[in-house]
Amino acid sequence: MSLKFFAHFLFIFQVYISVFLLIIHLQFHFFEIAFLFYFFAGAKPMAAIFQGVGAAATLSSSPSNSFDSNNSVFSPLTSFSVRRGASFAVVRSDGILNLNPKGRRAQQLISNAVATKADSAASSSSSKPGHELLLFEALQEGLEEEMDRDPRVCVMGEDVGHYGGSYKVTKGLAEKFGDLRVLDTPIAENSFTGMGIGAAMTGLRPVVEGMNMGFLLLAFNQISNNCGMLHYTSGGQFTIPIVIRGPGGVGRQLGAEHSQRLESYFQSIPGIQMVACSTPYNAKGLMKAAIRSENPVILFEHVLLYNLKERIPDEDYICNLEEAEMVRPGEHVTILTYSRMRYHVMQAAKTLVNKGYDPEVIDIRSLKPFDLYTIGNSVKKTHRVLIVEECMRTGGIGASLTAAITENFNDYLDAPIMCLSSQDVPTPYAGTLEEVTVVQPAQIVTAVEQLCQ
Amino acid sequence: MAFSAPTANFTPLNTPFLRSHDNTLVSSLSPSPFFGSTAKLRLSSSPNFNLHRRSGSVVAVSEAVKEKKFKSTRNLLITKEEGLELYEDMVLGRAFEDMCAQMYYRGKMFGFVHLYNGQEAVSTGFIKLLKLQDSVVSTYRDHVHALSKGVPARAVMSELFGKTTGCCRGQGGSMHMFSREHNLLGGFAFIGEGIPVATGAAFTSKYKREVLKEADCDHVTLAFFGDGTCNNGQFFECLNMAALWKLPIVFVVENNLWAIGMSHLRSTSDPQIYKKGPAFGMPGVHVDGMDVLKVREVAKDAIARARRGEGPTLVECETYRFRGHSLADPDELRDPDEKARYAMRDPIAALKKYIIENNLASEAELKAIDKKIDEVVEDAVEFADESPVPPRSQLLENVFADPKGFGIGPDGRYRCEDPKFTQGTAHV
Q: Dehydrogenase E1 component domain: from which residue to which, for each copy (chain B) (predicted)?
């Protein structure tokens, strides 16, 4: 009798165990599926459906056989998973990326999945802790690390020393390095930029801060004539490893003169490089790369991006000055952007994904020269280009980029390149007018729809 | 000649009324043995200075120096070696510039060429006191500054001919003379543009001493510019910064009274440029720029002051260019009498006279120097003639110090790796 009981017990126990395991198994995968779902598709589940013909490659980190059983239902998602396997943060850069999604992170990402792709992609979570900071702190960290590393690096600008910088990028540096290394200059942009150039020629590595990029108009003589040209006219004898940086772009009702987009003015100067940062990760990386570069570099920051928060790696890294950043891979249309407009584009991308489009978003980062490799590969894949920028329409970065793409990749285009830029108006003070001066996400959505017809 | 305050009367163009070589007017805010402790404007010249040119004494910038010179005319300002060095340098400058004019009219060099004839005393007087590591920043009238600083005549002439053996590989030209080896920081075409660069070089010197702790770094920078530049914002901005941070720089104004066709008096509200120094807290000195020995005495003090870390000095040298603004300038606006007056004060003739009268050297030795310089200049022309022109491959080489700055091409490689790039035919 006990044997029979025991046999029954074992049987029931086995069943129980199997069911238990099955439930656990399914739960695990269900969770994983849900994670993928929310992570890639945004809040609405239906967004995944449009992904028809993607390759059904399995996820690298999931147990393959159990996932296959769900393939038929969720096959569209696997095409997302292909992209998940590929790194879509920084292409060919020195940055370290580690996507290791965990449950908690997935929950956190639900509400703003698409917009913060770069955030999650560029950050590292469990494998390297990293540290979280704001964009201006990232710039400060980059600057401080370079100043520690090389005693010839010095800062010059208005209110950079005792005041700590009008956007706090140089906060604390004067106390640490002294008044000569973090030099408070009088209000004489042309002359102190020239002074930076003279110092660079004679062995130092100055970082010149324009309190607002608009003030650099006063330094245009020195930037164009000396910064860009001296290496050439001296037959290569003198190098000018200077970095000129500062905030620009349209802020919150700052008025016309403080809201200028001057990237276009400087792009014709031979001999200089221009980069624009947009996230704490690339801000620090570009700052360090610019300081280490032997060429004169102009680093454009944006007034409204200084308080962006992101987790960046602890270790030393730089971002290549000539490379563009792949923000969100896609299939249908290439959207090229930089600086603040990246966030408008990502916001529009959310809407676009919901409507069934798959935009590829590239932050070009290097405004001069253009990274035609990354851009070209994207054009060859999607055949449609939309440029979204904050620069002026006439003669802006977008105009140059349109010309460069047409020249090099005309055969790959299915439609004319569309370029959304700021209106050619001095930025009005009134909030409503200022809003329509720059490109808004709704315009981007309309443009993509038009382009993809 | 009595000095009259500029605001009191407007004098016609053809009288060099403002600063005769008799007057030296000094203002100083800080008491120092060099500049005297009072800041007074002397309104009439002392009668004793009319002979200064003959005796070679400096129209002094300080009471002490004045009296010392005055006491004994046998107390010479230079030794024989120094005298010959100065003479040779000035003759080199003159002969070189004359040869430039010849070559220009023969079609060997083109563009804007600005000659320095007549102003040699300023260049020689200042630059011959410098060490190799001291820096010089000039304007477009920079051939003689380059020669005085030590750039070989061959290199300068090749550069003017646009040959690849020039000091800037033929890429700079007449107005952009650079030499890393001799610390000549340019050569700038726009006026005023070099002054901030000079301020930066002086800043580096101070930085090296105080931050990098290279304790013996006392490099001085000289910034040369003209009277027209003294109305430019960059001039004033740099006077302010240099005085504020006590940078080791000397601002040398070569006031030749004319900015192309614009008389200094017609363009400047207060034509006394040296007065602008004390307004910023640095001494302002006026000196006769046609007399190399006077210039040298002032330069010695100004450079020593900078080396000691006491800060900048503004030196206004009254001088004159015998030729037009450039070789394209017909020079019809200036009064022939004015030109004749200054021609009589030719700095080379004056030094020659001084050397011979004080038995520092014989006529024969000076003639030997003349001959030697002629040969140097001829050799420079020959060398430049025979030098090759820059090949096409040189076009893109020096645009960036790091040629990765040309970016990444559509094929994924850096553009500078493209073989067409080194041939100079790549499209960037």
A: 89-390
Q: State ipTM.
A: 0.82
Query: Is A154 within 8 Å of chain B by CB?
Result: yes
Cβ contacts of B312 on chain A, cutoff 8 Å: none
Q: Are residues B278 and B396 in the same domain?
A: no
Which phi and psi (to 5°) does residue B413 adopt?
Answer: -95, 155
Model confidence at B12, pLDDT cuts 50, 70, 90, reads: very low
Chain B residue numbers with beta carbons less than 8 Å from the beta carbon of A323 are 408
B361 in the same domain as B244? yes
Give the number of domains in chain A. Answer: 2
d(CA B66, CA B322): 30
> Closest residue of B to A269, CA-based?
B399
Closest Cα to residue A348, out of A245, A210, A445? Answer: A445
Predicted TM-score of the model (pTM): 0.78
Q: What is the pLDDT of residues A82-124, one digit of tens each?
A: 333 333 333 333 333 334 444 444 333 333 333 333 444 444 4
Residue pair B59/B288 in contact (Cβ under 8 Å)? The answer is yes
- Residue B110's SS3 state is coil
- Least confidently predicted of A116-125, A202-211, B180-189, B364-373: A116-125
CATH number at A409 reads 3.40.50.920
A183, A202, A230, A400: best mutation site toward chain B, by most B Cβ within 10 Å?
Answer: A202
Q: Do A239 and B401 touch (CB under 8 A)?
A: yes
Single out the residue of A263, A261, A257 nearest to residue A249, CA to CA. Answer: A261
Q: Which of residues 85-124 of A touch B (CB under 8 A)?
A: none
A309-312 and A418-422 strand pairing? unpaired
Mutant choice from B408, B414, B428 vs A, greatest count of A C-beta within 10 A? B408
Contacts of B106 (CB under 8 A, 6+ apart): none
CATH code for the domain of B338: 3.40.50.970
* A77 torsion bin: left (phi>0), alpha (psi -120 to 50), beta (else): alpha
Based on the residue annotation, tell me whether A144 is a catalytic residue of this protein.
no
Residues of B in contact with A203 (CB under 8 A): 204, 208
User: Which residue range forms the structural domain that includes residue A309?
Assistant: 130-313
Give B251→chain A minimum CA distance, Å. Answer: 15
The residue in chain B having the minimum alpha-carbon distance to the alpha carbon of residue A321 is B405
Selecting from A154, A198, A366 the residue whose C-beta is nearest the C-beta of B196 gives A198
- Which DSSP string do the residues of B46-75 spell out, in sequence order? -GGGGGHHHHT----SSHHHHHHHHH-TTS
B357: closest CA of chain A, how far (Å): 43
